[in-house]
Amino acid sequence: MAGPEIERFRREIIERTGDRRQADNLSDQALLREVMNTVGKPDQLGESIRCVVSVSMLTEGWDANTVTHVLGVRAFGTQLLCEQVIGRALRRQSYELNEDNLFNVEYADVLGIPFDFATKPVVVKPIAPRETIQVKAVRPDRDALEIRFPRVEGYRVELPEERLSAEFNGDSVLELTPDLVGPSITQNAGIIGEVVDLNLKHLGDLRHSTLLFHLTQRLLYTKWRDPDGEAQLHLFGQLKRLTKQWLDTCLVCKGGTYPAQLMYQELADMACERIAAGIVRAELGKRPIKAVLDPYNPTGSTIHVKFNTSKTERWETDARRCHINWVILDSDWEAEFCRVAQSHPKVKAYVKNHNLGLEVPYRYGSETRSTSPTSSCWWTMDAAPKTRCI
Protein backbone atom coordinates (compact mmCIF):
# COMPACT_ATOMS: atom_id res chain seq x y z
CA MET A 1 0.00 0.00 0.00
CA ALA A 2 2.85 2.40 0.78
CA GLY A 3 4.97 1.36 -2.20
CA PRO A 4 5.32 4.84 -3.79
CA GLU A 5 6.18 6.46 -0.44
CA ILE A 6 8.79 3.79 0.37
CA GLU A 7 10.34 4.20 -3.07
CA ARG A 8 10.52 7.98 -2.56
CA PHE A 9 12.18 7.34 0.83
CA ARG A 10 14.77 5.13 -0.90
CA ARG A 11 15.58 7.89 -3.38
CA GLU A 12 16.01 10.41 -0.56
CA ILE A 13 18.47 8.08 1.19
CA ILE A 14 20.51 7.78 -2.01
CA GLU A 15 20.51 11.57 -2.51
CA ARG A 16 21.46 12.17 1.13
CA THR A 17 24.12 9.48 1.62
CA GLY A 18 24.95 8.13 -1.83
CA ASP A 19 24.70 4.59 -0.38
CA ARG A 20 22.44 2.53 -2.64
CA ARG A 21 22.98 -0.59 -0.53
CA GLN A 22 21.46 1.11 2.52
CA ALA A 23 18.43 2.15 0.46
CA ASP A 24 17.91 -1.38 -0.89
CA ASN A 25 18.13 -3.02 2.56
CA LEU A 26 15.63 -0.97 4.56
CA SER A 27 14.69 -2.53 7.90
CA ASP A 28 11.26 -2.39 9.54
CA GLN A 29 12.77 -0.21 12.26
CA ALA A 30 13.99 2.35 9.70
CA LEU A 31 10.58 2.46 8.02
CA LEU A 32 8.80 2.89 11.37
CA ARG A 33 11.18 5.69 12.31
CA GLU A 34 10.46 7.43 9.01
CA VAL A 35 6.71 7.06 9.60
CA MET A 36 7.03 8.80 12.99
CA ASN A 37 9.25 11.53 11.54
CA THR A 38 6.75 12.39 8.78
CA VAL A 39 3.41 12.25 10.62
CA GLY A 40 0.82 14.25 8.69
CA LYS A 41 3.20 15.27 5.88
CA PRO A 42 1.80 14.84 2.35
CA ASP A 43 3.37 12.23 0.06
CA GLN A 44 5.39 10.81 2.96
CA LEU A 45 5.10 7.52 4.84
CA GLY A 46 3.38 9.20 7.79
CA GLU A 47 0.81 11.06 5.68
CA SER A 48 -2.18 9.03 6.89
CA ILE A 49 -1.28 9.22 10.61
CA ARG A 50 -3.63 11.60 12.37
CA CYS A 51 -3.36 10.58 16.03
CA VAL A 52 -0.48 9.34 18.17
CA VAL A 53 -1.37 8.07 21.66
CA SER A 54 1.40 8.13 24.27
CA VAL A 55 0.59 6.01 27.35
CA SER A 56 3.05 7.58 29.75
CA MET A 57 3.50 10.33 32.31
CA LEU A 58 4.12 13.79 30.89
CA THR A 59 7.13 14.60 33.08
CA GLU A 60 10.62 15.98 32.49
CA GLY A 61 11.41 13.94 29.38
CA TRP A 62 8.38 15.10 27.37
CA ASP A 63 8.96 17.80 24.79
CA ALA A 64 6.10 17.38 22.28
CA ASN A 65 4.11 20.44 21.22
CA THR A 66 1.21 18.57 19.59
CA VAL A 67 -0.52 17.22 22.73
CA THR A 68 -4.23 18.08 22.54
CA HIS A 69 -5.74 15.78 25.23
CA VAL A 70 -4.54 14.75 28.68
CA LEU A 71 -6.45 11.99 30.46
CA GLY A 72 -5.62 11.27 34.10
CA VAL A 73 -6.54 7.66 34.92
CA ARG A 74 -4.44 7.19 38.05
CA ALA A 75 -4.20 8.95 41.39
CA PHE A 76 -1.80 11.87 41.78
CA GLY A 77 0.16 12.11 44.99
CA THR A 78 0.54 15.89 45.02
CA GLN A 79 -0.99 18.94 43.41
CA LEU A 80 2.48 19.86 42.13
CA LEU A 81 2.62 16.69 40.02
CA CYS A 82 -0.75 17.58 38.47
CA GLU A 83 0.54 21.02 37.55
CA GLN A 84 3.74 19.54 36.16
CA VAL A 85 1.80 17.19 33.87
CA ILE A 86 -0.41 20.02 32.59
CA GLY A 87 2.59 22.30 32.11
CA ARG A 88 4.28 19.71 29.92
CA ALA A 89 1.16 19.33 27.83
CA LEU A 90 0.55 23.03 27.23
CA ARG A 91 3.31 23.55 24.68
CA ARG A 92 2.31 25.87 21.87
CA GLN A 93 2.03 24.26 18.45
CA SER A 94 2.72 27.49 16.58
CA TYR A 95 4.65 30.64 17.43
CA GLU A 96 3.58 32.47 14.28
CA LEU A 97 2.01 35.88 14.94
CA ASN A 98 -1.40 36.68 13.51
CA GLU A 99 -2.58 39.90 11.85
CA ASP A 100 -2.81 41.62 15.27
CA ASN A 101 0.84 40.71 16.02
CA LEU A 102 -0.35 38.27 18.71
CA PHE A 103 -0.36 34.51 19.15
CA ASN A 104 -3.53 32.64 18.24
CA VAL A 105 -5.36 31.07 21.18
CA GLU A 106 -4.63 27.37 21.73
CA TYR A 107 -6.37 24.98 24.13
CA ALA A 108 -5.80 21.45 25.41
CA ASP A 109 -8.53 19.21 26.86
CA VAL A 110 -7.66 17.96 30.36
CA LEU A 111 -9.82 15.13 31.71
CA GLY A 112 -9.68 13.30 35.03
CA ILE A 113 -7.22 15.67 36.74
CA PRO A 114 -8.72 17.82 39.52
CA PHE A 115 -7.86 21.52 39.58
CA ASP A 116 -9.40 24.17 41.78
CA PHE A 117 -8.72 26.90 39.22
CA ALA A 118 -10.07 24.94 36.23
CA THR A 119 -12.83 26.68 34.29
CA LYS A 120 -15.50 25.28 32.07
CA PRO A 121 -14.33 23.71 28.82
CA VAL A 122 -13.99 26.15 25.93
CA VAL A 123 -14.95 24.94 22.49
CA VAL A 124 -12.64 26.49 19.96
CA LYS A 125 -13.01 26.28 16.23
CA PRO A 126 -9.95 24.48 14.83
CA ILE A 127 -7.55 26.73 12.95
CA ALA A 128 -6.25 25.41 9.68
CA PRO A 129 -2.46 25.02 9.76
CA ARG A 130 -0.41 27.41 7.69
CA GLU A 131 0.87 26.24 4.37
CA THR A 132 4.25 24.58 4.66
CA ILE A 133 6.71 24.35 1.80
CA GLN A 134 9.99 22.49 1.48
CA VAL A 135 13.03 24.52 0.51
CA LYS A 136 15.55 22.28 -1.20
CA ALA A 137 18.03 21.91 -4.02
CA VAL A 138 16.30 20.96 -7.25
CA ARG A 139 18.10 17.86 -8.39
CA PRO A 140 19.17 16.81 -10.93
CA ASP A 141 17.54 19.51 -13.07
CA ARG A 142 19.55 22.40 -11.58
CA ASP A 143 22.78 20.62 -10.62
CA ALA A 144 24.69 22.86 -13.04
CA LEU A 145 23.90 25.80 -10.69
CA GLU A 146 25.47 24.16 -7.63
CA ILE A 147 27.64 26.50 -5.54
CA ARG A 148 30.37 24.94 -3.42
CA PHE A 149 32.38 26.74 -0.75
CA PRO A 150 35.13 25.86 1.74
CA ARG A 151 34.20 25.26 5.37
CA VAL A 152 36.91 27.27 7.14
CA GLU A 153 37.82 26.69 10.79
CA GLY A 154 40.53 29.36 11.03
CA TYR A 155 43.46 31.05 9.35
CA ARG A 156 47.21 30.58 9.54
CA VAL A 157 50.23 32.51 8.29
CA GLU A 158 53.34 30.51 7.45
CA LEU A 159 55.90 32.44 9.50
CA PRO A 160 59.68 32.13 9.14
CA GLU A 161 61.46 30.00 11.71
CA GLU A 162 64.91 31.59 11.51
CA ARG A 163 64.10 35.19 12.51
CA LEU A 164 60.82 36.57 13.87
CA SER A 165 59.94 40.25 13.97
CA ALA A 166 56.86 42.17 15.02
CA GLU A 167 55.09 45.36 14.03
CA PHE A 168 52.97 46.76 16.86
CA ASN A 169 50.48 49.58 16.31
CA GLY A 170 47.40 51.03 17.98
CA ASP A 171 45.54 47.75 17.66
CA SER A 172 48.28 46.05 19.68
CA VAL A 173 47.61 48.14 22.82
CA LEU A 174 45.90 46.37 25.72
CA GLU A 175 44.49 48.55 28.49
CA LEU A 176 43.92 46.87 31.84
CA THR A 177 41.07 48.73 33.56
CA PRO A 178 38.58 47.79 36.29
CA ASP A 179 35.92 47.53 33.57
CA LEU A 180 37.94 44.75 31.93
CA VAL A 181 39.48 42.89 34.87
CA GLY A 182 37.03 43.70 37.67
CA PRO A 183 37.27 46.04 40.67
CA SER A 184 40.76 46.71 42.02
CA ILE A 185 39.55 47.64 45.54
CA THR A 186 36.85 45.81 47.49
CA GLN A 187 35.63 46.78 50.97
CA ASN A 188 35.01 43.85 53.29
CA ALA A 189 32.79 44.70 56.26
CA GLY A 190 30.95 42.45 58.66
CA ILE A 191 27.92 43.28 60.77
CA ILE A 192 30.28 44.35 63.55
CA GLY A 193 34.03 44.79 63.60
CA GLU A 194 36.67 46.57 61.59
CA VAL A 195 36.21 47.44 57.92
CA VAL A 196 39.00 46.11 55.66
CA ASP A 197 39.87 47.32 52.15
CA LEU A 198 41.07 44.50 49.91
CA ASN A 199 43.31 45.68 47.06
CA LEU A 200 45.79 44.34 44.53
CA LYS A 201 48.96 45.94 45.83
CA HIS A 202 50.51 42.53 46.46
CA LEU A 203 50.59 41.98 42.69
CA GLY A 204 53.26 44.64 42.46
CA ASP A 205 55.68 42.20 44.07
CA LEU A 206 55.66 39.88 41.04
CA ARG A 207 58.99 40.08 39.22
CA HIS A 208 58.87 41.35 35.65
CA SER A 209 60.96 38.41 34.44
CA THR A 210 58.48 35.94 35.97
CA LEU A 211 55.56 37.56 34.12
CA LEU A 212 57.61 37.63 30.91
CA PHE A 213 58.39 33.91 31.17
CA HIS A 214 54.79 32.84 31.80
CA LEU A 215 53.37 35.06 29.06
CA THR A 216 55.94 33.80 26.54
CA GLN A 217 55.16 30.22 27.54
CA ARG A 218 51.43 30.83 26.99
CA LEU A 219 52.15 32.43 23.60
CA LEU A 220 54.31 29.50 22.53
CA TYR A 221 51.89 26.77 23.58
CA THR A 222 48.79 28.43 22.10
CA LYS A 223 50.15 29.95 18.86
CA TRP A 224 53.31 28.13 17.78
CA ARG A 225 52.87 24.39 17.32
CA ASP A 226 54.00 22.16 14.49
CA PRO A 227 51.55 20.00 12.47
CA ASP A 228 51.97 17.18 14.98
CA GLY A 229 50.81 19.41 17.82
CA GLU A 230 54.21 19.77 19.49
CA ALA A 231 55.32 23.20 20.70
CA GLN A 232 58.13 24.77 18.67
CA LEU A 233 60.42 25.23 21.67
CA HIS A 234 63.32 26.50 19.55
CA LEU A 235 61.36 29.75 19.05
CA PHE A 236 61.08 30.48 22.79
CA GLY A 237 63.98 32.95 22.79
CA GLN A 238 62.64 34.96 19.87
CA LEU A 239 59.10 35.01 21.25
CA LYS A 240 60.45 36.14 24.62
CA ARG A 241 62.19 39.07 22.95
CA LEU A 242 59.00 40.13 21.15
CA THR A 243 56.88 39.62 24.25
CA LYS A 244 59.17 41.92 26.22
CA GLN A 245 58.89 44.51 23.44
CA TRP A 246 55.08 44.32 23.66
CA LEU A 247 55.05 44.58 27.46
CA ASP A 248 57.28 47.66 27.34
CA THR A 249 55.37 49.50 24.62
CA CYS A 250 51.76 48.27 24.40
CA LEU A 251 50.57 47.36 27.92
CA VAL A 252 48.70 50.14 29.75
CA CYS A 253 47.50 49.72 33.35
CA LYS A 254 44.82 52.09 34.69
CA GLY A 255 42.60 52.31 37.74
CA GLY A 256 44.80 50.39 40.15
CA THR A 257 45.48 47.42 37.87
CA TYR A 258 48.86 45.67 37.59
CA PRO A 259 50.78 43.88 34.82
CA ALA A 260 50.77 40.77 37.01
CA GLN A 261 47.08 40.32 36.19
CA LEU A 262 48.22 38.98 32.82
CA MET A 263 48.88 35.77 34.74
CA TYR A 264 45.12 35.16 34.50
CA GLN A 265 44.45 32.95 31.49
CA GLU A 266 41.76 35.05 29.82
CA LEU A 267 43.86 38.23 29.99
CA ALA A 268 46.98 36.32 28.93
CA ASP A 269 45.15 35.08 25.84
CA MET A 270 44.13 38.64 24.96
CA ALA A 271 47.78 39.65 25.17
CA CYS A 272 48.88 36.64 23.10
CA GLU A 273 46.37 37.54 20.38
CA ARG A 274 47.87 41.03 20.09
CA ILE A 275 51.45 39.79 20.10
CA ALA A 276 50.72 37.13 17.47
CA ALA A 277 48.85 39.69 15.33
CA GLY A 278 51.89 41.99 15.49
CA ILE A 279 54.18 39.19 14.32
CA VAL A 280 51.82 38.32 11.47
CA ARG A 281 51.51 42.01 10.53
CA ALA A 282 55.27 42.21 10.02
CA GLU A 283 55.04 39.42 7.42
CA LEU A 284 52.07 40.75 5.45
CA GLY A 285 52.86 40.71 1.75
CA LYS A 286 55.79 38.38 2.35
CA ARG A 287 54.07 35.21 3.54
CA PRO A 288 50.77 33.69 2.34
CA ILE A 289 47.72 33.46 4.59
CA LYS A 290 46.29 29.94 4.53
CA ALA A 291 42.78 28.87 5.49
CA VAL A 292 42.46 25.90 7.84
CA LEU A 293 39.57 23.73 6.61
CA ASP A 294 37.28 21.50 8.63
CA PRO A 295 39.01 18.10 8.45
CA TYR A 296 35.74 16.17 8.61
CA ASN A 297 33.65 18.30 6.25
CA PRO A 298 35.96 20.54 4.22
CA THR A 299 33.47 21.53 1.52
CA GLY A 300 29.91 22.82 1.76
CA SER A 301 27.39 22.81 -1.07
CA THR A 302 23.92 23.97 -1.97
CA ILE A 303 23.11 20.30 -2.61
CA HIS A 304 22.59 19.76 1.12
CA VAL A 305 19.96 22.50 1.61
CA LYS A 306 16.65 20.93 2.64
CA PHE A 307 14.22 22.28 5.27
CA ASN A 308 10.52 23.04 5.78
CA THR A 309 9.06 26.45 6.57
CA SER A 310 5.68 28.12 6.86
CA LYS A 311 6.91 31.67 6.23
CA THR A 312 4.82 33.44 3.65
CA GLU A 313 7.48 36.00 2.64
CA ARG A 314 9.38 34.06 -0.01
CA TRP A 315 10.68 34.34 -3.56
CA GLU A 316 10.36 31.60 -6.14
CA THR A 317 13.74 31.41 -7.83
CA ASP A 318 14.53 31.30 -11.52
CA ALA A 319 15.47 27.78 -12.66
CA ARG A 320 18.30 29.32 -14.69
CA ARG A 321 19.92 31.21 -11.80
CA CYS A 322 19.49 29.37 -8.48
CA HIS A 323 20.04 25.79 -7.34
CA ILE A 324 17.42 26.22 -4.55
CA ASN A 325 13.71 26.34 -5.37
CA TRP A 326 12.74 29.09 -2.90
CA VAL A 327 14.42 32.01 -1.13
CA ILE A 328 12.93 32.75 2.32
CA LEU A 329 12.89 36.53 2.74
CA ASP A 330 13.67 38.47 5.90
CA SER A 331 13.22 41.91 4.35
CA ASP A 332 12.04 43.67 1.20
CA TRP A 333 15.56 44.44 0.00
CA GLU A 334 16.27 40.70 -0.22
CA ALA A 335 13.43 40.35 -2.70
CA GLU A 336 14.94 43.21 -4.68
CA PHE A 337 18.31 41.45 -4.59
CA CYS A 338 16.70 38.30 -6.02
CA ARG A 339 15.15 40.31 -8.84
CA VAL A 340 18.46 41.99 -9.71
CA ALA A 341 20.52 38.79 -9.43
CA GLN A 342 18.16 36.87 -11.67
CA SER A 343 18.10 39.56 -14.35
CA HIS A 344 21.79 40.53 -14.32
CA PRO A 345 23.57 39.12 -17.38
CA LYS A 346 26.86 38.45 -15.54
CA VAL A 347 25.37 36.42 -12.67
CA LYS A 348 25.72 32.72 -13.31
CA ALA A 349 24.21 31.50 -10.01
CA TYR A 350 23.24 32.88 -6.60
CA VAL A 351 21.99 31.57 -3.25
CA LYS A 352 21.11 32.91 0.18
CA ASN A 353 23.03 31.65 3.21
CA HIS A 354 19.98 30.09 4.86
CA ASN A 355 20.64 26.58 6.23
CA LEU A 356 23.62 26.56 3.90
CA GLY A 357 26.26 26.10 6.58
CA LEU A 358 28.52 28.99 5.57
CA GLU A 359 30.25 30.30 8.72
CA VAL A 360 32.96 32.88 9.33
CA PRO A 361 35.42 31.90 12.11
CA TYR A 362 37.11 34.36 14.46
CA ARG A 363 38.81 34.35 17.85
CA TYR A 364 37.86 36.20 21.03
CA GLY A 365 40.53 35.82 23.69
CA SER A 366 41.19 32.09 23.98
CA GLU A 367 37.82 31.13 22.47
CA THR A 368 37.35 30.12 18.86
CA ARG A 369 33.97 31.38 17.71
CA SER A 370 32.08 31.55 14.45
CA THR A 371 29.30 33.69 13.11
CA SER A 372 26.74 32.46 10.62
CA PRO A 373 25.47 35.43 8.58
CA THR A 374 22.05 34.69 7.09
CA SER A 375 19.89 37.57 6.02
CA SER A 376 22.84 39.72 4.99
CA CYS A 377 25.01 37.08 3.32
CA TRP A 378 24.57 35.89 -0.24
CA TRP A 379 26.69 33.92 -2.64
CA THR A 380 26.79 34.85 -6.30
CA MET A 381 28.92 33.54 -9.13
CA ASP A 382 29.55 35.72 -12.15
CA ALA A 383 30.36 34.61 -15.64
CA ALA A 384 34.15 34.63 -15.09
CA PRO A 385 35.55 31.17 -14.24
CA LYS A 386 36.10 30.49 -10.54
CA THR A 387 34.95 33.96 -9.48
CA ARG A 388 32.57 34.30 -6.55
CA CYS A 389 31.53 37.25 -4.45
CA ILE A 390 29.48 37.88 -1.31
Structure, explained:
The protein has 390 residues and is an alpha+beta fold. The protein has three domains: 3-111, no CATH class; 133-153 and 294-389, no CATH class; 159-287, no CATH class. Helix content is 27%, strand content 19%. The protein is built from nine helices and 19 strands. It has helices at residues 3-17, 20-24, 28-37, 79-89, 178-181, 208-223, 236-250, 265-282, 332-343; strands spanning 69-71, 109-111, 133-136, 148-150, 152-157, 174-176, 185-188, 196-199, 251-253, 289-293, 299-301, 306-309, 314-316, 326-328, 347-352, 360-364, 367-371, 378-382, 388-389. The protein is extended and about 80 Å long.
What's a quick, concise take on this entry?
By secondary structure, the protein is of the alpha+beta class. It contains nine helices and 19 strands.
